[in-house]
């Protein structure tokens, strides 16, 4: 099993839709979790950290399920500008590294 | 968020030459820096992890003698691609982290083209 797995997509959704991404991780000792966003040919940028209690930032909600070892990202009322690749990142792999998922591509259409 | 500056943003070099890429944390001390490579339409691939003052830990399949990493201070890490070949052409990105369990911030990336 890969350390961090994501559905690569692409997810093609209309403006205004709600879309959810899941990410599973294999190391139960993982300690920190993040969602990053990467635009084409740009560096990844932190979208939000994921806390055990779940957290929300505007239209974005992140949740962590330790028992099932997955994190999720929910985007409500999708905007065209949300089109990007969303990377799931887990800290605390076997060598204490940041482990990236391969990313989920989101395309929001008018 | 914190600022990580990577330089140069774009470089074209001749095959056989060496290229140095710098990664600086501008407003925090980075105990750990990561170097990634990303080929077009592919995911980020971790090349190596470096902790200030110690040797970098390279991922399997990454040649440490070809990709020299130096992390001599808490604000600067360098990646030198030695004897570059066209297949080394890629997007190289660094990230820096202040401490364990904290988020990492990324440099702008360096697009290397070897001709």
What does this structure look like?
The complex is a heterodimer of chains A (110) and B (115). Chain A has 110 residues and is mainly beta. In chain A, 0% of the residues lie in helices and 54% in strands. Chain A is built from no helices and eleven strands. In chain A, the strands form two sheets. In chain A, strands 2, 4, 5, 9, 10 and 11 form a six-stranded mixed β-sheet that branches. In chain A, strand 9 (84-91) and strand 10 (98-100) form a beta hairpin. Chain A is globular, with a radius of gyration of 13 Å. Chain A starts with a strand and ends with a strand. Helices cover 0% and strands 51% of the residues of chain B. In chain B, strands 2, 4, 5, 6, 9, 10 and 11 form a seven-stranded mixed β-sheet that branches. Chain B has a four-stranded antiparallel β-sheet with strand order 1-3-8-7, with no helix packed on it. The radius of gyration of chain B is 13 Å and the shape is globular. The chains are: A mainly beta (110), B mainly beta (115).
The helix content of chain A is under 10%
Largest interface: A-B, 23 and 24 residues
| Cα radius of gyration of chain A in angstroms | 13 Å
* Largest sheet, strands/sense/barrel of chain B: 7 strands, mixed
Separation, N- and C-terminal Cα atoms of chain A:
37 Å
Q: What kind of assembly state do the chains in view correspond to?
A: heterodimer
Question: Features of this protein?
Answer:
heterodimer; A: 110 residues; 11 strands; 54% strand; B: 115 residues; mainly beta; 0% helix; globular
Q: What's this, in brief?
A:
The complex is a heterodimer of chains A (110) and B (115). Chain A has 110 residues and is mainly β. Chain A has no helices and 11 strands.
Would you spell out the secondary-structure blueprint of this structure?
The complex is a heterodimer of chains A (110) and B (115).
Chain A: E1 4-6, E2 11-14, E3 19-25, E4 32-38, E5 45-50, E6 55-57, E7 60-65, E8 70-75, E9 84-91, E10 98-100, E11 104-109
Parallel strand pairs in A: 2-11
Antiparallel strand pairs in A: 1-3, 3-8, 4-5, 4-9, 6-7, 7-8, 9-10, 9-11
Chain B: E1 4-7, E2 10-13, E3 19-25, E4 32-38, E5 45-51, E6 57-58, E7 67-73, E8 76-81, E9 90-97, E10 105-106, E11 110-114
Parallel strand pairs in B: 2-11
Antiparallel strand pairs in B: 1-3, 3-8, 4-5, 4-9, 5-6, 7-8, 9-10, 9-11
């Amino acid at each position: 099993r890969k350390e961090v797995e994501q559905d690569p997509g692409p997810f093609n959704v209309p403006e205004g839709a709600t879309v959810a991404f899941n990410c599973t991780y294999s190391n139960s000792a993982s300690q920190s979790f993040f969602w990053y966003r990467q635009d084409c040919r740009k560096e990844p940028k932190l979208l939000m950290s994921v806390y055990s209690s779940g957290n929300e930032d505007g239209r974005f909600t992140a949740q962590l399920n330790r028992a099932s070892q997955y994190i999720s990202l929910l985007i409500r009322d999708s905007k065209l500008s949300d089109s990007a690749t969303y990377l799931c990142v887990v800290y605390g792999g076997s060598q204490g590294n940041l482990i990236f998922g391969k990313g989920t591509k989101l395309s929001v259409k008018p | 968020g914190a600022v990580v500056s990577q330089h140069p943003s774009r470089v074209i070099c001749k095959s056989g030459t060496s290229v140095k890429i710098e990664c600086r944390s501008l407003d925090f001390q980075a105990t750990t820096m990561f170097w990634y490579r990303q080929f077009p339409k592919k995911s980020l691939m971790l090349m190596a992890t470096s902790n200030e003052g110690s040797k970098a830990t390279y991922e399997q399949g990454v040649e440490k003698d070809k990709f020299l990493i130096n992390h001599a201070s808490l604000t600067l890490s360098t990646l030198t691609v030695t004897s570059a070949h066209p297949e080394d052409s890629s997007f190289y990105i660094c990230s820096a982290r202040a401490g364990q369990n904290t988020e990492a911030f990324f440099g702008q990336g360096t697009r290397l083209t070897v001709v």
